[in-house]
Amino acid sequence: MAAPNQPAVLAANVSRHHKMGATVVRALDGVSLEVARGEFVALLGSSGSGKSTLLNLIGGLDRPTSGTVTVMGRELAQMASGELAAYRRNTVGMVFQAFNLVPTMTLAENVELPMRFAEVPRDERGGLVRSALARVGLGERAGHRPSELSGGEQQRGSIARALVNQPVLLLADEPTGNLDSRTGAEIMDLMKALNREGMTIVLVTHERAIADRYATRHIFLSDGRLSDRPVLSGTAEVAP
Amino acid sequence: MMAYDMLELAGRNLKESKLRNMLTTAGIAVGVASLVALLSLGIGLQAWANRNLNRSGIFETVAVFSKRDFMSFDSDERRSEKTKSNENAQPLDAAARNEIAKLPNVVEVYPEMRFQTEVVFEGHSQFSTVAGLPLSARGSDAFDDAQGRFFSGPEADEVVLQEDFAKRISPNAPLLGKQVTLRYAERSATDAGTQEQGFTVLRREKTFTIVGIVKQEPYGGWRNFARGRLFIPVNVAEKMNVLQPSALRDAVSAGAKPTYISLLVRVGNPKDAQAVQEAIKKMGFTTWSALDASKGMRRFFLALDLFLIIFGSLGVAVASLGIINTLVMAILERRREIGIMKAIGASDADVKRLFFAEAAAMGLAGGAFGVALGWAIGRVINLGTNWWFARQDLPPENFWLVPWWLVAAAIVMAVIVSLVSGLYPAARAAKLDPVQALRYE
């Protein structure tokens, strides 16, 4: 178990290169950063800057070409495939721009899905699904399929799914990208509330205004590297 | 993931592409059905052949001869015995008969009784061959379509006629219940009182009641040198003390007791025949049983079954390609879903098992439907064959048999083939990169 003073996320000289024929694409190149527990960090950058790649590495969906990612004191590179899957279902929750709910399942079934993989006893699941949906204000929509829900409702559903196994780290990749500004604000308010309850959040966004309003710290990425350009709000910092 | 969750998810996924999965399952069912139909025909034919042979009783019977009279039927044994004289061979006499009767699993031992006789019926006479039958011959298939009945007891003065012979002595008039007289030569003791000293031949007559008429000789006459035309209880035949060809040899061999040309040994179960045959051989006699001949038949059916399995498996092989195709299509269609599952915590093994469960479910359903379909095809073939038999005035037969082990084996095989077919798609789904899958639109 990680010591309380350990950072939630520690990335050390992390690179992720892709080979495209003879060309090597450096999606991420020697990035080091630290996220403290309880922080709400925004990863900012233009399209192709490597922010989603970094989020996927922290989320255990991908492995770095070099460097190490340590979450809650556990180095992800040391984990076998099965351990990494356990890490994804128990330690982190992920929220995507495209919501990524399974269209053939109802909202309740979608929220229940991570508990199936975590082998949560069946009789405990119903209550956990109901409380997760109530937490995001969707208690009445449990039986609806994603196609019957609005974009905002789907995203709140996906947050409920990300929270149901009680992770310590919430990773959100452009969660408001497919939503209008009012609905986007509702989602961000929800995430802010979760952060106030102690949840560590890493948010990937290209919208500076959202980062400024909700995140406690900004990290800029450009061409796969941390960017050292000064920020206007003064709430962001540049890692060495 | 727990087994229940895996099966529920697999079932849900299968329901999503109902038509395609049903067609794939139907493909497995047709493959399994062809295999089951062909194999059940092979098994049925074998069972039919065995049934007929068993009912004829030949597998329960071991014929015993004295080495003095017959060389061994076994060529190796014959070669090794070549230099030995037959003079001191074990005589096949009453003592030997008692000894054989005491062997385990032997039900009865009776002498091969067969002799020439003059048959007198309504003033006309002709020569023919009489054979003695034990009471156990009642179960022989020769009596299935017999007229009249079998002997009322082991000592009854009753005779069963062979149909051709019956027609010869009385082409039109019914024979059952009528009397027939046999004239024969009896071997009788000389005045000295013992047969060892020689014997007298006396002309005798004995009257029998005709109780039955059979189409063919019971036991098919496989062990005889001349076909019998009249059959009387073997006990009666023995007591008649008819002069046998062996009597002359008994007379010239000084001190020889009366011997049998051959004894027929019946065992309770055909599977005991081999052991009894070996035990009798050890006693110093030559034996013969139909088991030797049946080995060739078993080899034939083994080869036939193998051929049918190979032929039937082609359908299953085609069906397995269908499963691979369906599951690969499912990966393409559910690429994003697999990515989502992995992102929220499904392990590679979970994804793999899910695809295996889907393959196994299709295999199980296909196997079960296939067995039912194969069973139905077999029924139709059997009905068609028997319809044809009926047109040819032949009795109905069952050529087709689906034993329980075939039902179980076909379903298990369908599941195994489906799982093997699922190997590649499952591995491919498990290896799917979630980042790529979630990027996919």
UniProtKB/TrEMBL annotation, chain A:
Gene Ontology annotations for the cellular component aspect, listed alphabetically: membrane protein complex; plasma membrane
Keyword Disulfide bond: no
InterPro entries on file: AAA+_ATPase (IPR003593), ABC_transporter-like_ATP-bd (IPR003439), ABC_transpr_LolD-like (IPR015854), MacB-like_ATP-bd (IPR017911), P-loop_NTPase (IPR027417)
SUPFAM superfamilies per the UniProt record, alphabetical: P-loop containing nucleoside triphosphate hydrolases
Stretches assigned to the ABC transporter domain: 9-239
Source domain of life: Bacteria
Signal peptide span: none
Alphabetized UniProt keyword annotations: ATP-binding, Nucleotide-binding, Transport
Keyword Endoplasmic reticulum in annotation: no
An annotated Gene Ontology molecular function: ATP binding
Alphabetized Gene3D superfamilies for the sequence: P-loop containing nucleotide triphosphate hydrolases (3.40.50.300)
Protein family: Belongs to the ABC transporter superfamily. Macrolide exporter (TC 3.A.1.122) family.
Listed PANTHER family: ABC TRANSPORTER RELATED, IMPORT ATP-BINDING PROTEIN
This protein's name: ABC transporter ATP-binding protein
Annotated source species: Candidatus Korobacter versatilis
From TrEMBL, chain B:
Locations listed in the record: Cell membrane
UniProt GO cellular component terms: plasma membrane
Coiled-coil stretches: none
Main location: membrane
A Gene Ontology molecular function term of the record: transmembrane transporter activity
Keyword annotations of the record: Cell membrane, Membrane, Transmembrane, Transmembrane helix
Xref: InterPro entries: ABC3_permease_C, MacB_PCD, Macrolide_Exporter_MacB
Protein's membrane topology: Multi-pass membrane protein
Residue stretches spanning the membrane: 21-49, 300-333, 354-381, 401-424
Signal sequence extent: none
Hydrolase as UniProt keyword: no
Domain of life: Bacteria
Pfam family name, one: MacB_PCD
Start and end residues of each MacB-like periplasmic core domain: 22-282
Domain ABC3 transporter permease C-terminal stretches: 309-434
Membership in a protein family: Belongs to the ABC-4 integral membrane protein family.
Protein's name according to its UniProt entry: ABC transporter permease
